[in-house]
């Protein structure tokens, strides 16, 4: 949610900032802006993508300085418009030339705005961010760092900010609480950004700013303090990020690239972690807590969106394989529900980015109430990975497309390994684990086989592309996959879709079924196959077209439904990793058919860093 990047050094800031914004654009893209210090601060802002800003800057002079800040926005307060785009300034008539970019939400901005208005401030935008710029201006007394600290002591909410001031043309002040921010440390230069993708082209040395921390950067030095001005020493670390991984290559969209990367990503996810011959799972990140996990009395998974669907599958896995009572909750609901955490409760946060605000808050809530906390996270060094007691990285590589694909599969693989790791130490027989791990090892190949059906899926898509409503049905392990399939279709093609447990259909939603409302039925040859076939018939007798996801070779189902997408046979607890793939491709081809912006769908941001 909003990407921020700032630079201070000896190079021209503008190209570095624009390049950084392009890397961060997946975080928000309804407007963009940039400010460069060049005697005065020059500001450019526009509605739309970074490329619009770039074009606009070609017609403007004065953006030649070596200190600057830039922002790509996902609107929270104030519609997407030029006047609400960042950067924002402090008061025009009584200000000090303070300019700021912000990711997050200032929750008490109404009170602060009123206070500032009473003191004569006039606001140009509807944003909470402008209020913070004015507040810093109001408290400024010749020291930008001190003014930022003082202002941040007054605000509640979340922020990652970068601030510059015309009175201090060689100083960049940045700060963080709740929203991510990293400082890249180069030779006589610093580049600050929401994530490492905007930093690695310049330096691989970086530190994360902790909550309530401010950094004052000049070209050759920096210092970090708390907002109460207590000095702190951050730990500079080597960034592990290969820029090649985020090249689009020959693919038209990141989403398609990431779908096709899944087999290899899963091989990396499994590498060195399973040993089918000995029936062993090795998860280095949790070894220290193995005993606590084995003795756990209750497990709670939390996540949002696709990560929530992975959490639902994880609940089935944990109860089946580890036999530990398990629950799953939206992070956003868990934290406001006064949850009861007894001794022996383990809270497991699932997140691709590791920065989802609600999931971070749920994790903090669980921790504060005494739960052991784990993270199943993709982004190394992200907030969730740092704040949990232990965790397992997905290791599927950077995911750029807003629609989560390979991270979902990685989450399922890691959850399977975790449940097996615990189950093996509790009661699962070595033979059983060996054969499960044998199967797990074949999953990347199965996924590869399904990706090869992309052209066929494309043709099926064309047949149904004009339908405006879809239902997705699944049972057991494939119920969360039905939800995920519907989410994929909604988020990138803007077509209404609902996922549900197949048996739930006749409790209401069956009223929607007609010849214009196709139903996707996940109907594998598993324990629930016959029940699923009965549900399919209920749809068919009401005229609903059925597209089945079925087990290769199931001639029976092929003869009885309108269309089939085949998946290889596998144990039912591993099926979601495979059945999700045709649904990803189905959503992808539908979105392309409709000319939608697949990688940056309207109204969405990759990482939801506000609650
Ligand atoms: O980074 P996270 O996994 O915590 O993100 C959670 C959701 O915001 C995310 O899965 C979202 O639902 C995706 N757009 C789904 O494709």
How would you sum up this structure, described in words?
By secondary structure, this protein is an alpha/beta fold. The chain folds into three domains: 3-239, Aminohydrolase, N-terminal nucleophile (Ntn) domain (Glutamine Phosphoribosylpyrophosphate, subunit 1, domain 1, 4-Layer Sandwich), CATH 3.60.20.10; 250-447, Rossmann fold; 453-596, Rossmann fold, CATH 3.40.50. It is built from 18 helices and 27 strands. It has an eight-stranded antiparallel β-sheet, covered by helices on one side. A seven-stranded antiparallel β-sheet has the order 5-6-7-8-12-13-14. Strands 19-18-20-21-22 form a five-stranded parallel β-sheet, with helices on both faces. A hairpin with a 2-residue loop joins strand 7 (157-165) and strand 8. The structure holds 5-amino-5-deoxy-1-O-phosphono-D-mannitol.
Q: What is the secondary structure topology, with strand pairs?
A:
Blueprint: E1 3-8, H1 13-24, E2 31-38, E3 40-47, H2 50-58, E4 67-73, E5 88-89, E6 98-106, H3 109-118, H4 128-139, H5 144-154, E7 157-165, E8 168-177, E9 182-185, E10 190-193, E11 205-208, E12 213-217, E13 222-226, E14 231-232, E15 237-238, H6 254-270, E16 274-275, E17 280-281, H7 290-294, E18 298-303, H8 305-322, E19 326-330, H9 331-334, E20 345-351, H10 357-368, E21 372-377, H11 383-387, E22 390-393, H12 406-426, H13 430-451, H14 454-464, E23 469-474, H15 478-493, E24 496-501, E25 519-523, H16 529-540, E26 546-551, H17 555-560, E27 563-567, H18 575-593
Parallel strand pairs: 18-19, 18-20, 20-21, 21-22, 23-24, 23-25, 25-26, 26-27
Antiparallel strand pairs: 1-4, 1-10, 2-3, 2-4, 5-6, 6-7, 7-8, 8-12, 9-10, 9-11, 11-15, 12-13, 13-14, 16-17
Helix pairs in contact: 3-4, 4-5, 6-12, 6-13, 8-12, 8-15, 12-18, 13-18, 14-18, 15-18
This protein binds 5-amino-5-deoxy-1-O-phosphono-D-mannitol.
